[in-house]
Amino acid sequence: MAMHPFCSRRKFFHSGLGLIGAATLPRFAFGSDMPRRGGTLIVAADTEPRNLNPAIVASNGVFYVASKVLEPLAEASYQGEGLSPRLATSWVDSKDGLSIAFSLREGVTWHDGKPFTSADVAFSALEVWKKFQNLGREVFENLESVETPDAKTAIFHFSKPTPFQLIKNALPALTSVVPRHRYEGTDILANPANQKLIGTGPFRFAEYRPGEFYKLERNPNYWEKDRPYLDAIIYRILPDKGAIAAALEAGEIHLAAFSAVPLADLERISKAPGIFIKSQGYEGLTYQLTVEINHRRKELSDARVRRAISLAIDRKFVVDTIFLTYAQASTGPIPKLDKQFYVANKKMADFNPAEANALLDEAGYPRKANGIRFSVKLLPAPWFEETRQFGDYLRQALKVVGIEAGIVSYDPAGHQKAVYTDHNFDLAIGSPVYRNDPAISTTILYQSGIPAGVPFSNQYGYQNPAVDSIISKAAIAVDGDERIKPYQEFQWLVAEDQPIINVAEFSFVTVARIAVRNLANNPRWATSHWADTWLDK
Amino acid sequence: MKRLSGLLLRRFLSAIPVIFIVIVASYVLVELAPGDAVDTYLATSGGDSEFAANFRHLWGLDQGGASRFIAYLGRLVTLDLGQSLIFSRPVLDVILGRLPTTLLLMGTSVFVAFGLGTTLGLLAGSKPYSLRDRVFSFLGLVLYAVPGFWLGLILIIIFAVWLNVAPVGGFETIASDKEGLRRTLDIAWHLILPVLSLGLIYLGLYLRLMRSGMIDVWHLDFIRTARAKGLSQNRIAINHVARNALLPVITILGLQLGSMLGGSVVIESVFSIPGFGRLAYEAVIQRDFSLLIGVVLIGAVAVIIMNIITDIAYGWLDPRIGAQRKLEP
Cβ distance A433 to A461 under 8 Å? Predict the structure, then answer.
């Protein structure tokens, strides 16, 4: 063998290998961005919904498990017009607002093998969403019929002009399709398929052990090629927040969504090895912290008194101390995040106790000898720690302006009845959800004429004909741009009157182990399909 | 034997009015609580009045309280405990599903507490006011005062998170489909921390009882006789003092075993074990009155049975009791 001084054959050979190695290095050495197939994702769940069917009960607790099994026509997205096609591939409206044509995806089968067709969509829309769904009853009220000229087309016909924008905004949450062959002719609410779900989604419903876990398994016949990546998802039922944090640290679960790890614990747990926190992925699930006001009480029916209550609240304190900065101060009924409709009414978020005191004096409620102007009953909603803490803060803030608030605590059933049915409150702390369009669950908080017993609606005795008329006008405005104007005017009217006080907009935080990839890649991630979620080694 | 069967018969007959009162009281209390099962449901889902009406009809809540109660009693006579709203399954299924878990968790905890507690109490009480006694008494007091959930979480942090030798919670490894001996060992491993938490809390009770019982017995005449006979200190302590001090401890053991089926909502929540404590709690919060009355009923029956067994055991353990008076309820 010839011995070359600078480059022996051996060295050359090795450097050659080195070059090849370097070219492939990104894939293997950093275990990086090539999704890996396989693995079981274990997540924390803290509720066991009685009815797991999102077509009937469109709520976060249900979606968290069910959205992997049952799919909507379209899901929310960060790109484009904010929608990504799932069971529907395209949607076109007739310009008069009386019909919308959906093209449906081909090659989709139900988990029991039957093919998915437009008949399933027609049945779901007319017999389930319109008749039974908590939110769909409002939005699909004017749905008259669904034409199905062929298996891949469903045309929705409305009896009155219905805004296309509203239906589009409602697609992710309100349009889960159920199998007609399982529900037709049965008692829909009592159907066992509401617990043992049958859908078209990336995962099949495998097992539910009450008190212990839900198990979903990969659907091998899913319409999207090579998806899902995961073999299975297990929802471990962990009712204690301390145990959830411990399970994450010990590596027994991979993910805790919906702020299952309390905000106060986030700083500590983010420093633990192998764990990261993500506050993105919840933009489509914005909650609003509100002070609900009972206008039947004489003092509270005066707009000056309500303005004074709003001025007494230091929203920055609430955001920094109660929400540990995981929230934003609110200036009105529509959150800042909704770029379509939001208008800023900065003065609604003012903090000025001196002005509040002056307004209360002017309204004719001077301080008595003990410094109190009048007393109120305050009912904080028990379902979030933050609503309860805000109740405590509000009591202190109102004391500064001379209003004495006595806190009355109920459990969820009692609170529901006291506020929304019996109207047995003066002030209450509420947490309504903003669902991407003011017409879905927001205007109902301001509209008059709603019967007692309807939760999260105007049970406050508030009646403003101007607001009612603008809401009705907006409800039938068909053109997308034309629709924005009445909702902007709605926000101005509400800013003047402040029938309920918007304090903050908050959402949730996910805590996960770093092995979980493709997390939070759409604005409703926790309640979406997870077909593209994967587990790194 | 005749006396025994007479006792049993009398006890069962007097149990019937007790059970009836329990049922009526539970029903009335749940009815009086503000809000019903649909209100809890609406708090999570929202919905309009039709939505609420639909579920009220599905769950039979649209009929009046009295007619519902009569219907419930009618079903109860045929041992049909009704349908659980929360689980959409028969109440009996739900209860029987959780029964073994609860019995295992609570029974083991009580026996661990009894065994360790009485032993430590015996050791403490055999040399009253000694260093050993003071240390054990202090330990007993501390364990008695510690809140159960705190102890549970501390044990989780130390053994499950830092040392990683125990699971964070749960009854068995999720969806593992283990069988037979492997499953038994898996369950046992999962129950170590919860049983330890509950056991340590109850331990304080038995320790203090045993110790104070022994201190009382030390002063009695027959102990002086035993010492005069020349028996060793240890023999006196175990054979004479401890045996007599055990009686009140057995009473408490019987009471605790009777209330076993109440579960422990705190430990079950911290360790995510599906037991009766959490079941009763959920039934109250969600106003599932069929489930709640079912749980309360089973618990009441268990208490009555345990009371009878304790009485019989008492008579067997202490020969004086049977000889001096008839066994009367």
Answer: no
Residues 7-26 of A with CB under 8 A from B: none
Taking CB atoms and an 8 Å cutoff, what residues of chain B touch A47? 44
ipTM computed for the complex: 0.85
Number of Cβ pairs < 8 A linking chain A and chain B: 159
- CB atoms B175 and A207 under 8 Å: yes
- When scoring B29, B31, B48 by the number of chain A Cβ atoms within 10 A, the one with the most, hence best to mutate, is B48
Nearest by CB: A455 against B46, B174, B286: B46
pLDDT value at residue B69: 85
pLDDT of residue A330: 93
Residue A178 contacts residue A169 (beta carbons within 8 Å):
no
Identify the closest residue of chain A to B267 by CA–CA distance.
A240
Q: Which of A134, A236, A239 sits opposite B47 (nearest CB)?
A: A134
The closest alpha carbon to B44, from A118, A145, A60, A530, belongs to: A60
Q: DSSP string of A138-166?
A: HHTTTEEEEEEEETTEEEEEESS---HHH
Q: What is the secondary structure of A43-78 as a DSSP string?
A: EEE----S---TTT---HHHHHHHTTTS-BSEEE-S
Q: Which of B37, B58, B174 comes nearest A213 by C-beta?
A: B174
pLDDT at A16: 47
Task: List chain A residues with CB under 8 Å of B37.
Answer: 413
How is residue B241 annotated by DSSP? I
For residue A280, the tally of other CB atoms under 10 A from its CB is 15
Name the minimum distance, in Å, from the CA of B76 to any CA of chain A.
Answer: 23
Max mean pLDDT among A21-25, A522-526, B19-23 falls in A522-526
- State whether residue B180 is helix, strand or coil: helix
Kindly indicate the confidence band of residue B312, based on its pLDDT and cuts at 50, 70 and 90: confident
Q: A439-479, pLDDT tens digit by residue?
A: 988 999 999 999 888 889 999 999 999 999 999 988 888 88
Per the CB < 8 Å rule, is A455 touching B35? no
Distance from CA of A476 to the nearest CA of B (A): 21
Strands A275-278 and A510-513 turn out to be antiparallel
pTM as predicted: 0.88
B36-80 pLDDT, tens per residue?
Answer: 888 888 888 778 888 888 888 888 888 877 888 888 888 888 888
Q: Which residue has the higher pLDDT, B207 or B175?
A: B207
What pLDDT, in 10s, does the model give residues A208-243?
988 899 999 999 999 999 999 999 999 999 999 989
Is residue A353 within 8 A of residue A382, CB to CB? The reply is no
User: Which chain B residues touch A50 with a CB distance below 8 Å?
Assistant: 41, 85-88
Per the listing, tokens 């803290």 go with A46
